[in-house]
Amino acid sequence: AGVAELAAASAGDMRQAIDLALNRAKVFRVDPLSESIAVVTRGLECNRKENPNLLGGVMEQSLRLASAAMAADRLEDSLNAAETATDAAKAVTVAARPPKKAIKDPSLVEFALTTTKQSESLKRTIRRRIKARDEMIQAKKKLDSAPDDPAANAVVGGYECFVLGEWERGLPRLVKSAAKEFTGIAADEIRISAAEEPAAKDL
To answer: Measuring CA to CA, which residue among 36, 60, 70, 68 is closest to residue 112?
Structure first.
């Protein structure tokens, strides 16, 4: 992260910090998501002890980035962002307790409690996704040596269809799978797509 976005993050202006990080990513052709997560992490580090009243933006943007990373199947990045949200929320709730009572805005404490629930739920989902992804990776290795293996096709095809939304890749695997509730449906979908494709070209 650059000096300008780190300064904005230190001041608690996370939206400006992320906008600057995205501009930097375009100019220097670096990963915008990684830059943005680095910025919110910096915002937490700077304000956790010095001024927890500025952590509202860290919580908000960390949750948003965690969701964006999960949608992109970047699960470790998603987990890191969700952890930042949890840590920021904890810093706020701790600072609000006696004898500190350092939080001036009661709504910030309420937001911290809500963020804790959301981030913990999100982390559980991410960890399940990581487990499913790792199982899919192992199943893919199995398909390298046994491409018609029903169980491996079920795992890989299910992940591609229902997690990634890559139906064209996943449906042929589900046809080969041991999951009988999916094989017929998958085969029907492939036949429908094959029938529709020439008609679409005619248009």
So the answer is: 60
Per-residue model confidence as pLDDT tens digits over 82-128: 999 999 999 999 999 999 899 989 999 999 999 999 999 999 999 99
| Token digits of residue 31 | 């990963």
Rg (CA), the chain: 22
Tokens of 66: 């965690």
At residue 15, the 3 state secondary structure works out as helix
Q: Hey, what are 178's tokens? A: 């041991």
d(CA 75, CA 162): 16
Three-state SS for 161? helix
Q: 82 near 54, Cβ under 8 Å?
A: no
Helices (H), 72-179: 75-96, 106-145, 150-158, 167-175
Structure-block tokens of residue 130: 């990581």
The structure tokens 């010095």 sit at 50
203 token code pair: 């248009």
Q: Which helix (H) or strand (E) holds 61?
A: helix 56-71
> pLDDT tens for residues 68-86?
999 999 999 999 999 999 9
pTM of the model: 0.84
